[in-house]
Design a protein that fits this description.
Chain lengths: 209, 429
């Protein structure tokens, strides 16, 4: 009888732990004990990226260079910001870089990335004529319409950080393209990784005349 | 040992519940069998015959009987409409269409009632449009249901431009002629078109100023204007109420994707206000009940996006209504669209990892799967008569529009090509 009680408690705890979330945690999949156990099982046996998982705010975005990926544009880095700022007069939009996210993640705790964004926020604060467009993009797994709304969360997350670190809200523009403009086409987890991103574009004031 | 077995059993039961998805049986609807006389092959008769047959087959309102030799002989005889003989052939209705100068003459025979009705349809210039009007007229006389002639499907077409990258323009597919016409030529990014207050107006989402904003396009004059220029942030996924007096959409002036609503009249829009917000959850895809007393929309408040309904009328004019989650069975229930009869909601949900078109029956509270196959299907939208759905597929870079009859599950493709055609919206013109 005693063992039955302990066994019952173990099962109950497993179920309850599956339903446990914090205010900043979100499920991409169904919030059930079954899915939790399934995800933990897949994670334990290293079955790769599952399309349903619990995400919390400790999962951070990574910059291009940290992923070892080549970029067509300029990698976001604090050393090159002054150069960018001084050369923007001849351009309307400058591609600056992409930040990549884990599935469903929209927040970051990564120290180095925070420092870089802090520098960028300071640059925006110093030069009010600079504008930064923060474009949220998603991978192809959720639907088109829903991704439009979801992408806002990603873009707004970065925008909030920049504002927190001094960027004037008027110099920022957070928009979402959902999965409308994929960086790469394909349905492999590596393709999804490249599409779950925030693109940062530095915009100069429009030329007159 | 016994306890271990119990644990394994419980674990398996939980997994079985999640792993097995049993589709509900489709509702059988009775449709009357119709026999259509084979038209004379002279003067485009064969073409007319083929188009009319296709229209009847696709209508979902009747079941078309195959051409029978004895039936054709009977129609050629002196007594073409003998109820007993047609009953023996299994027909409930008989239709004979004859091409006459300036149009078509039709005879409709109701076998059960022994009644003959004649119709005269004028040629309106375009053969396809005339035949659509004719088949709709026949179906309306026989079944009392309006057809889909005189309608168009608005959609967005996305393609990759070598210089500009991804661009998206608005298009309209004329249901009668089957021809598509490009409405915008901005080389920008325009999506989510819906019908506006007048037949010429189209409300849509445009990224021309950076943020996504709602615009109105007057297709006659080409004039366009922002609907809520003073509302900061992004505006997405608009839905106009059937009377055109309210507009619901998603906006993020406070940082999260919230549900907004505003009054709408010919004089302009009223001030928008947040109808539902629950940070950090995301709201999307509102759609009005035909009597405008309720909205259905998507919220991931409970984790997984599901359909929620929200009463727009407050009891006693006080308090705040809260949304009610109505779907539970399938993951990622998204893009709902309320049927014109108010009894069903079409939406898309993941079934075994593939997004399929679904139907929620508000009377039976049932979730039904309407489509199958490996291709993702999204954005279902009802036809104005509520008999069909249009949806788009998502296949790599491309995707096309399909029309589906929810009861028979019969479907056919209406757009072709490698670009992505999406966000369809079906309206009467």
């Amino acid at each position: 009888m005693k063992y039955t009680f302990y066994l019952f408690m173990v099962i109950l705890c497993s179920c309850v732990s599956g339903c446990f979330t914090r205010s900043h945690s979100l499920w991409e999949g169904t919030k059930t004990a079954t899915r939790y156990i399934e995800y933990q099982g897949k994670k334990f046996f290293s079955k790769g990226d599952s399309d349903s998982r619990l995400v919390n705010d400790t999962e951070n975005f990574l910059l291009d260079r940290e992923r070892g990926m080549s970029t067509d544009g300029v990698v976001l880095h604090k050393e090159i910001l002054p150069t960018l700022a001084s050369s923007v007069a001849s351009h309307e939009i400058l591609y600056m870089g992409s930040l990549y996210f884990e599935t469903d993640a929209h927040v970051t705790k990564d120290k180095e990335s925070h420092n870089t964004l802090r520098e960028l926020a300071l640059d925006l604060k110093r030069d009010p004529s600079l504008k930064l467009r923060v474009e949220g993009h998603c991978d192809e797994r959720a639907s088109e319409a829903y991704n439009l709304a979801l992408g806002l969360r990603r873009a707004r997350g970065i925008e909030e950080l920049l504002i927190k670190w001094g960027a004037p809200p008027s110099s920022l523009e957070a928009i979402s393209f959902g999965k409308e403009r994929p960086a790469v086409l394909g349905s492999r987890p590596s393709d999804w990784e490249k599409n779950r991103r925030v693109e940062l574009k530095l915009i100069t004031p429009k030329k007159r005349g | 040992m016994r306890f271990s077995s119990l644990f394994i059993f419980l674990f398996m039961v939980m997994h079985l519940e999640a792993a097995f998805i049993v589709p509900l049986k489709s509702q059988a609807t009775r449709v009357d069998p119709l026999y259509m006389h084979r038209m004379d092959e002279k003067e485009e008769g064969a073409t007319c015959d083929a188009i009319l047959r296709r229209n009847f087959e696709r209508s979902g309102a009747i079941s078309l009987l195959p051409v029978m030799q004895e039936a054709e002989e009977m129609l050629a005889s002196h007594h073409p409409f003998m109820a007993s003989a047609w009953r023996a052939c299994g027909a409930r209705h008989v239709v004979r269409v004859i091409k006459v100068p300036g149009g078509f003459h039709s005879e409709l025979f109701d076998v059960a009632k022994g009644r003959i009705v004649t119709l005269d349809t004028k040629d309106i210039g375009n053969l396809l449009s005339t035949l659509h009007a004719l088949s709709d007229q026949i179906l309306y006389t026989l079944t009392g249901h309006r057809g889909s002639s005189g309608t168009e499907i608005l959609y967005a077409l996305r393609k990759k431009d070598r210089e500009r990258g991804w661009i998206s323009e608005l298009w309209a597919l004329d249901y009668d002629s089957g021809e598509s016409k490009q409405l915008t030529h901005d080389n920008g990014y325009a999506i989510c078109p819906i019908g506006g207050q007048s037949k010429e107006d189209i409300i849509y989402v445009d990224y021309r100023e950076g943020h996504s904003k709602l615009y109105v396009l007057d297709r006659l004059t080409g004039r366009r204007w922002a609907l809520f220029p003073g509302l900061v942030g992004n505006q997405l996924l608009p839905a106009l109420s059937p009377s055109g007096r309210q507009i619901a959409f998603i906006a993020d002036p406070q940082g999260s994707a919230d549900l907004f609503i505003s009054s709408f009249s010919s004089g302009g829009v009223g001030p928008p206000y947040a109808l539902y917000s629950a940070p950090p959850s995301t709201q999307a895809s509102p759609s009005f009940h035909p009597d405008e007393s309720r909205l259905v929309f998507i919220s991931n408040k409970a984790g997984n996006p599901q359909l929620h309904t929200l009463d727009l009328i407050r009891e006693g004019g006080k308090g705040k209504n809260l949304p009610v989650k109505i779907t539970r069975k399938y993951r990622e229930a998204i893009t709902p669209h309320w049927s014109p009869d108010g009894q069903r909601i079409a939406y898309s949900a993941k079934v075994n990892g593939v997004r399929q078109i679904m139907l929620y029956d508000l009377i039976k509270k049932e979730e039904r799967i309407l489509t199958e196959g490996a291709m993702h299907k999204e954005n279902p939208c009802w036809s104005p008569n509520g008999r069909h759905l249009v949806y788009n597929t998502v296949e790599g870079e491309g995707g096309n529009l399909f029309i589906l009859h929810p009861e028979t599950k019969q479907q056919f493709q209406v757009t072709f090509g490698g670009e992505r055609k999406h966000y369809p919206y079906w309206r009467r013109i």
